[in-house]
Amino acid sequence: MFKLPKENSAARPSSLGRRGFLIAAAGTGFTLAFLRADSSLADSKVARVPPAKPAAPVFDPSIWFQIGRDGMITVNIAKAEMGQHIGTALARIVAEELEADWSKVRLHYVDTDPKWGLMVTGGSWSVWQNFDPLSRAGAAGRLALVEEGARLLRVPVSACHARLGVVHGRGRSISYGDIVRRGKLARQYTPEQLKAIVLKTPQQRSLIGQHVQALDIPAKINGAAVYGIDAQVEGMLYARPKIPPTRYGAKVVSIDDAAAKKVKGYLRSFALQDPSGTVPGWVMVVAETYAAAVRAADLVQVKWRAGAAAHVAEQDILNYATKQLADASLGARVVDDDGVEQAFKDASLQLERRYTTSTVLHFQLEPVNALAQEIDGVWHIHAGNQWQSLILPVLAQALKVPESKVMLHTYLLGGGFGRRLNGDYCVPAALAAQAVGRPVKMICTRADDARFDSPRSPSVQHVRMAFDDAGKVSAMVHEASAGWPTQAMIPAFLAKDKQGHPYDPFAIAGADHWYAVGAQRVRAVSNDLANSSFRPGWLRSVGPGWTNWAVESFMDEAAQAAKVDPLAFRLSLLQASGRNGGSAPNAVGGAARLAHVLQRVADKAGWGKAMPPDTGLGIAATFGQERDMPTWTACVARVKVDRSTCMVKVEKLFMVIDAGSIVDPDGALAQAEGGALWGVSMALHEGTAFLNGEVKDTNLNTYTPLRMADVPELDIEFVASTHTATGMGEPPTTAVAPAIGNAIFAAVASRVRHLPIRPEAVLKGLDRHGAV
């Protein structure tokens, strides 16, 4: 099912754009019993198994949408909805080419089935990957409807056209619903025929890029939307886990539930036996109600034999990374130009810096949960999830059943941010249900969730730059060590360098920047100590969350060393030639487009103007996560530093984004705003430490994300573009932290090189520069 990455390329799932489909009036169709986020959402929170399909004819031109006899258009969404309005965006792509009446479009978030292909929502891929295949599916449906409508109207096809769900021709018209009821729709498209369909030009579009009502908002507002935590089935029990002291290697020695037996509704506690190795050492506390499960779990006493990570702390991981980077033989060389050593040998000036980041938790609003039930030999798992295709084989292994005997039902996610790419939380629920012989719903508390998280790994980065006699940049080396989530969870997605050394593209992307720096080397090293101590996870912004912190902070430091304005220094390196020239269809224009958003955001922010005391502007840029799917983003942060407390206040963020064609303007703006604020949160507030095998902070009293009172003013602008639509989920996040760090230096000459930025680090920088 998985597409293996080509050598030396970023790994990503393939889209379904190469399949053909049959257009036909089907005697059966998908029911609307699948839970989904729209105005026709199920009227209760009871999880249902899909019933037998009724015989109501529908127009089912592809797996991506159907049209009913009433003209209602149901678009199948195989992506996870977690607040980003992906259903609205994808449905809009279909509806645009289908010439649908938007008021008759509904969303259907599908359950797992092999026909959907690889089901994953992450990497800012969803719109980018699906724009073309969904456009062609909609266009093919429109052509078939026009042909059949013309026959029913007794008008030549050439005289007909479709508009807002109606076929018109020579003064007559017929609705899509009437065509479905009366017509004989039958047409087959080959992949070659689909590819040959001429799609609309950007100027012909009436839905894409326009402001229309998002389809999922009403249910979220009125409470009808159903999240994983809402799912219920008759006769289910509740469970809360007792999580062992280490992620790996823990074993249960004894369980004492004497005190828990006094809790009304408590049933039993037992150690899970997990053939998949996902939750070693877990104890499940089962009760008739969730309240009873929570109270009883607090009273159950478990003794474990901990794994080796019980003696590991955050500083150990960072020290280990530092030693790794000192050994040039380790890791993979993602970029490896000739002449790096010679350039440094001949350099008239060398600059060398070290940047670090802390462990970061997800802390999504809805704690992880899952409901498992076996029906006639099939395991039904009810949970919000971002990567169904990743967890299905793991569940099958854990339950010792074929993968065909596991179905994951789709629900809205109360926040994902990459945490639910790893569906490990489904395993304990399934094993508990198997053990007790009844449906079991497991809900983690906030603290359970934090301890079971797949956090963003701490990182260490070593960056060097060489300048020649003329003051021109002649070489740059960027080396990074961190835990690799892809290595931990899906090694098949590891890429390889030219020498065949594997690396995690999601742990180094961003270091392969678009600046022309002469001879360049980028080396990625897997932090084995991090990998063996916890399960590193993907977190919104992924690798660029730390790589871009180093790149853009270093660019400012290099500009300072060269005695050049930071904006001018960057623009001088964005030459849009060679490998930085860009390529079709996704990276047309290359570095020139990054230079454009940089200059534009600088103009908006008043770059170069005098600032009030202890206030500064900092600039940073990013292309997002992947070079062949760039979202050109530039940010200026206006920051004020209180010298008495060294507290940093972000007063305003200016951001300019070139994401190609914008499908859903409101959704894109919401993504940019959320991403920018997430960036502020991780820059100044979020970060924990790994201590004695666990994260130090397990709740929001000590782990303190950005609060509303600290939200800065946002000024976000999108570049008008007709280029390929790229991703919006992560790029805005990655430019914010370095912009803030650079602004702190501009304000008070204190250079910070660690995330999150704490007041004591700002004070240390002030002391070092003699500023206080």
From TrEMBL:
What's the protein called, per UniProt?
Answer: Molybdopterin-dependent oxidoreductase
What SUPFAM superfamilies does the annotation carry? CO dehydrogenase molybdoprotein N-domain-like (SSF54665), Molybdenum cofactor-binding domain (SSF56003)
Species of the source = Janthinobacterium kumbetense
Entry-linked Gene3D superfamilies: Aldehyde oxidase/xanthine dehydrogenase, a/b hammerhead, Aldehyde oxidase/xanthine dehydrogenase, molybdopterin binding domain
In terms of superkingdom, the source organism counts as Bacteria
The UniProt entry, under InterPro entries, shows: Ald_Oxase/Xan_DH_a/b, Ald_Oxase/Xan_DH_a/b_sf, AldOxase/xan_DH_MoCoBD1, AldOxase/xan_DH_MoCoBD2, AldOxase/xan_DH_Mopterin-bd_sf, N-heterocyclic_Hydroxylase, OxRdtase_Mopterin-bd_su_IorB
**Residues of the Aldehyde oxidase/xanthine dehydrogenase a/b hammerhead domain:** 222-308
